[in-house]
Amino acid sequence: MLRLKELRLRDKKTQKELAAFLGVDRTTYTKYETGASEPNLETLNRLSSYFGVSIEYLLGNPPAKPKKQKGVQVPVLGDVRAGYPMEAVENIIDYEEINEETARRGEFFALRIKGDSMEPKFSEGDVVIVRKQETADSGDIVVALVNGDSATIKKLKRHQNGITLMPTNPTYEPMYYSNEEIMELPVTILGKVVELRAKF
What we know:
Blueprint lengths: L1 H9 L4 H8 L3 H9 L6 H11 L3 H4 L12 E11 L4 E2 L6 E6 H4 L4 E7 L12 E6 L8 E6 L3 E10 L2 E5 L8 E4 H6 L2 E11 L3
Parallel strand pairs: 1-4
Antiparallel strand pairs: 1-3, 2-7, 4-5, 5-10, 6-7, 6-10, 7-8, 8-9
Helix pairs in contact: 2-3
């Protein structure tokens, strides 16, 4: 256990002091350091707590590598306007990868931001990952379809008599739609933005 010696020297302790702490004689402790003898689990736990390290570290084992997750490709379906609504585009221009755990939570697509109404958080050229859903709560960032063919990304604010699609850039006006307009135009929620991927 070469790391045991390293830790002891780090903390400026003697073999005698560590042996006394563990309740063993110095010869036994020396065998722990040289690897001639391996301490039992109880002793390892005490040493781990004493030095503030894991048992794995004490034993010299490398940290386990995180299990690599398989990615799932989701299509980037053109641009979504961070400004005034623009014609909805559904041609695939690229792909983004999400992990399998996320993919199991629903159906996803991606869109590229065009415009600056959602700055400073969302900038032109950024990509957003969107979970398909027809409803959303106040405060959610959503992709909404207006007039059936114009898509926009905005912060949703719900009212008793309608909704407002809110920009975060103060130079743009909020877009209010009454319940009647929501039905007549129509205005529909395509999905909720769950991740922003800034493109520098």
